[in-house]
């Protein structure tokens, strides 16, 4: 049963990732009516949100866009940074949505950020602890119990990420619509692109929960 659930989650994950890439491929070909680049949109959104201490920079890769609260940078991939498409507008404004969350002390982002240092350390050892726990399950349940507890924290983190991502998208869509960065047709496309991006986080969270429940079932089975 656990294997079946894992295969289903994996299949859904591959599908969502494929749809996300195809959507961004499609909307990257649609030129933005106002002709602004992702960099220009990001800088405008930050400025109009009263944020002047965040830099917009270009980073290598594709779909590598992210906001870094440590050094206060909105990092955009070349296709987004230089792009003048609907996809570039959606991604650039979404990442600035995270910057606005940071500037306004959005509670879910703060909670998520507080978990990062612990998870950075825990993730280095968690899989090894779980592996040892599975191998020694007939001898001692302590290693697996510790591993499951650590994995539970990572699962919690993945679910806390959901409101952070959805809120950033909502902020982005509200801003680009209010400020006429996009027309009505482009707004629909932007919303569609961000919807599929958010679904990747949702599938990841569900996958993490399914894996956690599998480990818990192993642990409870041993206790029985």
Annotate the secondary structure layout:
Blueprint: H1 2-28, H2 38-48, E1 55-58, E2 66-68, E3 73-76, H3 78-81, H4 86-103, H5 107-135, H6 142-178, H7 184-223
Parallel strand pairs: 1-3
Antiparallel strand pairs: 2-3
Helix pairs in contact: 1-7, 2-4, 4-6, 4-7, 5-6, 6-7
Compose a concise summary of this entry.
The chain crosses the membrane at residues 115-137, 144-164, 196-216. It comes from Dyadobacter endophyticus. By secondary structure, the protein is mainly alpha-helical.
Strand order of the largest sheet: 1-3-2
Specify the helix fraction band.
over 70%
SSE order, one letter for each helix or strand: HHEEEHHHHH
Count of extended strands:
3
Task: Output the number of helix runs.
Answer: 7
> Mean pLDDT score, rounded?
92
Category by helix and strand content: mainly alpha
Distance between the termini: 19 Å
The best one-word shape is: elongated
Strand count, sense and closure of the main sheet?
Answer: 3 strands, mixed
Strand content: under 5%
Rg, rounded, reads: 20 Å
Stretches where pLDDT is under 50 for at least 5 consecutive residues are none
Essential attributes:
224 residues; mainly alpha; three-stranded mixed sheet
Explain the overall architecture:
The chain has 224 residues and is mainly alpha-helical. 74% of the residues lie in helices and 5% in strands. It is built from 7 helices and 3 strands. The chain has helices at 2-28, 38-48, 78-81, 86-103, 107-135, 142-178, 184-223, and strands at residues 55-58, 66-68, 73-76.
């Amino acid at each position: 049963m656990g294997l079946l659930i894992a295969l289903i989650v994996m299949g859904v994950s591959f599908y969502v990732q494929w749809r996300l890439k195809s959507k961004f491929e499609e909307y990257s070909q649609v030129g933005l009516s106002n002709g602004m680049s992702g960099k220009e949109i990001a800088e405008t959104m930050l400025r109009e949100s009263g944020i002047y201490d965040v830099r917009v920079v270009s980073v290598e890769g594709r779909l590598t866009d992210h906001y870094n609260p440590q050094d206060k940078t909105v990092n955009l991939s070349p296709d987004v940074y230089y792009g003048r498409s609907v996809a570039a507008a959606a991604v650039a404004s979404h990442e600035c949505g995270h910057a606005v969350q940071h500037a306004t002390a959005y509670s879910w982002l703060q909670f998520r950020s507080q978990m990062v240092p612990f998870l950075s350390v825990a993730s280095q050892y968690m899989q090894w602890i779980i592996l040892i726990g599975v191998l020694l399950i007939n001898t001692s349940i302590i290693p697996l119990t510790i591993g499951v507890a650590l994995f539970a924290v990572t699962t919690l983190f993945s679910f806390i990420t959901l409101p952070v991502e959805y809120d950033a998208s909502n902020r982005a869509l509200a801003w680009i619509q209010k400020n006429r960065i996009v027309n009505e047709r482009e707004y629909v496309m932007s919303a569609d692109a961000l919807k599929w991006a958010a679904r990747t986080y949702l599938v990841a969270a569900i996958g993490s929960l399914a894996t956690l429940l599998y480990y818990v079932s192993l642990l409870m089975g041993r206790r029985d």
